Structure formats: structure tokens, C-alpha cells
């Protein structure tokens, strides 16, 4: 059995997902970041992710160790990019990537993005778009390491975010 699995979240995962996100929110605050310091994300956002089939968990053995939202073709804020996307075709958006504090430093954010790339290809889509705060060097480093291209800025709740895209190749 592979050490990690990536699957759709279900309602029983919500408490663990929220715990992981609260840890990430506290880490961002401790780092002096403004990201996730305005009441977002919150349990209602995660519940909506799960209900809409967008919530995904990274599992190690039987334990939820990471979370992300994976959405096909829907991010209204991306239409108003200050810059230019690499493609204008179908895309997958990844949001709210968070890793349990007990599993930091193991490359699991990268692992989530690799699973998202697999999911994207399985859906015959070849573009992943994502964004992060300017003051989130760890996520920026993951995007750059995985070959995402910086495309410009997008805005969420009035704040600018660095926008990235990766065009996938056929496997």
C-alpha cells in the first residue's frame, strides 16, 4: 500500500480538516502573514467544499494529514488577473492547501499538488491555476519547484495574491 492516499473529503473528515486549517492559520499569523487572518477559511467554507465535492484530504495510513480544495473551471477572481494566464482552456484550481503541524517538513504540500496534477489529467484537463499571498514563501517555493509559472496578480477580499499556472503534459 502506498504511504499516502488522496481522496475526496467526507463530512466525518471536517473536524480534522478544521484542526489542520486552524494550525495553518496560526502558523501564518506567527510568520507575520496577513493570509487567512480575516475569518477565512472557516468551517462553513470547508463544509461547502465537501458538499460540492471540492474538498480533498491527504491520508497517511488512516490519518488525515493534509487538505486542499480542488475545483474544476471555477474561480471568478481569476478572470480579472493583472497579468496573463498561460492558457484560456479548462483548468483546475487548487485552494486552501494545509498540512498538519505534525507532518510539516515532509514535502506534503508538494505531494498534494502532485496528486492534483494526477486528478487534473484524469479529467482530461491540462492546466492547474493557483494563488498565494506574497508573504507565503513556503508555498511560493513549492509552486516554483514544481514548475508553476508566475502569471500576475489576482485579488481576494481586497488583497493581492500571486497567481500561478502550470500547463501539464500528457503522460
Automatic annotation (TrEMBL):
What are the record keywords, sorted? Acyltransferase, Transferase
The answer, when asked if Acyltransferase is one of the entry's keywords, is: yes
Instruction: Using the record's annotation, list all stretches that form the N-acetyltransferase domain.
Output: 4-171
Q: Which Pfam families match?
A: Acetyltransf_1
InterPro entries in alphabetical order: Acyl_CoA_acyltransferase (IPR016181), Bact_Acetyltransf (IPR050832), GNAT_dom (IPR000182)
- Tell me the GO molecular function terms: acyltransferase activity, transferring groups other than amino-acyl groups
Name assigned to this protein: GNAT family N-acetyltransferase
* Native organism: Adhaeribacter swui
Amino acid at each position: 500500500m502506498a504511504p499516502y492516499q488522496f481522496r475526496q473529503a467526507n463530512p466525518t473528515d471536517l473536524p480534522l480538516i478544521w484542526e489542520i486549517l486552524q494550525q495553518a492559520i496560526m502558523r501564518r499569523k506567527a510568520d507575520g502573514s496577513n493570509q487567512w487572518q480575516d475569518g477565512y477559511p472557516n468551517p462553513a467554507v470547508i463544509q461547502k467544499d465537501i458538499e460540492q465535492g471540492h474538498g480533498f484530504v491527504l491520508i497517511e495510513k488512516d490519518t488525515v494529514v493534509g487538505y486542499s480544495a480542488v475545483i474544476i473551471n471555477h474561480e471568478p477572481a481569476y478572470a480579472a488577473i493583472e497579468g496573463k494566464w498561460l492558457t484560456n482552456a479548462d483548468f483546475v484550481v487548487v485552494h486552501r492547501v494545509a498540512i498538519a503541524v505534525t507532518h510539516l517538513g515532509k514535502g506534503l504540500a508538494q505531494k498534494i499538488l502532485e496528486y492534483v496534477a494526477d486528478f487534473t489529467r484524469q479529467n482530461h484537463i491540462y492546466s492547474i491555476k493557483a494563488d498565494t499571498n506574497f508573504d507565503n514563501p513556503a508555498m511560493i517555493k513549492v509552486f516554483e519547484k514544481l514548475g508553476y509559472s508566475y502569471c500576475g496578480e489576482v485579488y481576494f477580499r481586497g488583497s493581492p495574491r500571486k497567481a500561478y499556472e502550470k500547463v501539464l503534459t500528457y503522460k
